[in-house]
Amino acid sequence: AGSGYQAWLGYRQLLPGDRFDQYAVFNRIHVTETDSVIQTAVSELTHGLEGILGVKPEFAEQGKHAIAIGTFGNNPVVDRIVTAEKIALIGQEGYVIITDKKNACMAVGAATSNGVLYGTFHLLRLLSTGSDINELDIVDNPINRLRMINQWDNMDGSVERGYAGESIFFKDNLITEDHGRIRDYARMLASVGLNGIVINNVNVHKVESKLITEFLPDVAKLAAIFREYAIKLFLSVNYASPIEIGGLTTADPLDSDVRQWWKEKTADVYAAIPDFGGYLVKADSENRPGPFTYGRDHADGSNMLAEALEPFGGMVIWRCFVYNCKQDWRDRKTDRARAAYDHFKPLDGRFMDNVILQIKNGPLDFQVREPVSPLLGAMPSTNQVLEFQIAQEYTGQQRHLFYLIPQWKEILDFETYTKGKGSPIKRIASGSVHGNRLAGIAAVSNIGDEMNWTGHLLAQVNLYGYGRLVWNPDLTAENIAEEWIKLTFGDNENSINVIKNMLLSSPAIYECYTAPLGVGFMVTPHTHYGPDVDGYEYAKWGTYHYADWHGIGVDRTLATGTGYTSQYNSPNFERYESLADCPDELLLFFHHVPYTHVLHSGKTVIQHIYDTHFEGVEKAERLVTEWYSLAGTMNEVLHKQVAERMEEQVEHAKEWRDRINTYFYRKSGIADKAERLIYS
Ligand code: GCU
Description:
single chain, 680 residues, binds alpha-D-glucopyranuronic acid, xylan alpha-1,2-glucuronosidase activity, Glyco_hydro_67_cat, polysaccharide degradation, Xylan alpha-1,2-glucuronidase, xylan degradation
């Protein structure tokens, strides 16, 4: 109980009085089907009821005093309770949960076993959060078809940008034997409705290239575990595999031997894993190989793989994180933010139907604040999937508290105007704006082999919330937080309020003491943890802030800058282009301004920098006080774990504050109006 391992699936016992009496009516399970996903649902329901009610549920022949779970047409009790009208509303992965009060029974019904599993997890969520289940009448379908998680795990056991220990999948260049832990992870993912996993890092090196050859039998074992939880397994592949492991001399996508090689290897993969999801590819990106070497483009490269996968129903997920990572800082014309759009937009219409482009939420790299990628929605004839990062690479690395759901909500609600009003990112991601067959959301996982999965216990909420939000982007950050708190810490009103407040205020606090006004980076090179204002300023990575004695920011306007603003549709283009209309929080992303420039807030840029950095630390200190107010209300070990991280956050926020304030004081020579301590 003190480890955090159970995460949100602890199913703690309700006490008589809670809603115990009404729940006790439903202590039997009625099931008629035997396939493996239904069996997963049954064992989860058994386990859940046992925890919540404190008694082992029985299996019932009849529907009375029972929860009936099953697919339509295969379970008489489900069929009796669920009307044809309801059935018509349910898609491939949706479910209904309906209470039949008269007969004291309940049905969790769906068109597929996968839907039954999601419905079962939802029912358990309702029970664990103490909801009234007497009159349930729920019809629920996921909004996004692809609900993916990307592991950045390497076979040596390390996790790229991992902040919670080592890989749970790989160790010593082998696939781990600890299938129990992997099964528990599958369970967590399924409980929040995720349905696809890429088990290895997008940076695929020689050993990982062999996941589709030598290691295939072991990969198949993992696929079998995930299959029981309705999750499809995918692999990241190395674009240069034909050379590196195939003995060919080229990886040219138009070379017939290369095409044949991929076809054969792909057939082997499907022979071992008939429901294999497909390949994820990082090509021509950050020194990874790709079609550019052969004078080909990304459509040529991805279509070659798509052709190999197509006969089996597989897909290629091709990443758009393509930019010049060997830029010269002296060159003010090249703008990394432009790169994805410039590379991919002209290729619209050339991709096969089973290719999906995976696009990071912002044009740079998961910064605390950046605008939404203008490539999202800009290719009407191409499938796209939106990429988030649950791992907190630039948002405190799971040592600082950062609740990511509010940030993702803002992104999902962003209006692209790609087909006029009514084209927000959430409808691009779901495929509904352009009518895509394949669409959805993917995110980089934040788990590792640490006992509590995520290092910072409270970072579990980001994994939980990711699944919930991707299932339904209209859920609110408040509701998701509240659900998670109840499931994790129990139903105590004070704790719920305190923790909810902490979570909801956390992104703004972090933003306060890091790089100001959307300018981004200013982090220690390589680790990306902690402040280093000029760390990347003269580097090749294309992430500059251009601070001088006079001002700061990147001019990305069409009029006088890199022209990045013109990648946006009207009226976003005009809003970002105009210094007067550009939102404060993104000002330095789009404009270079003097420190004396007055923001909409009425403050000068320099005063804003000082104020937010002092406030950020004060607010981080308040978070600690709030957390200490909960001592004694929860498991002591868990409380202490979090307290330690929160204290580290404060110390580290001070480092950010002082480095940033001093840097800008030295550059500008302008004093703080409030005369606080800035080290000169
Ligand atoms: C970032 C991150 C890398 C990662 C890359 C990617 O640059 O720092 O570690 O490989 O994104 O998304 O491919």
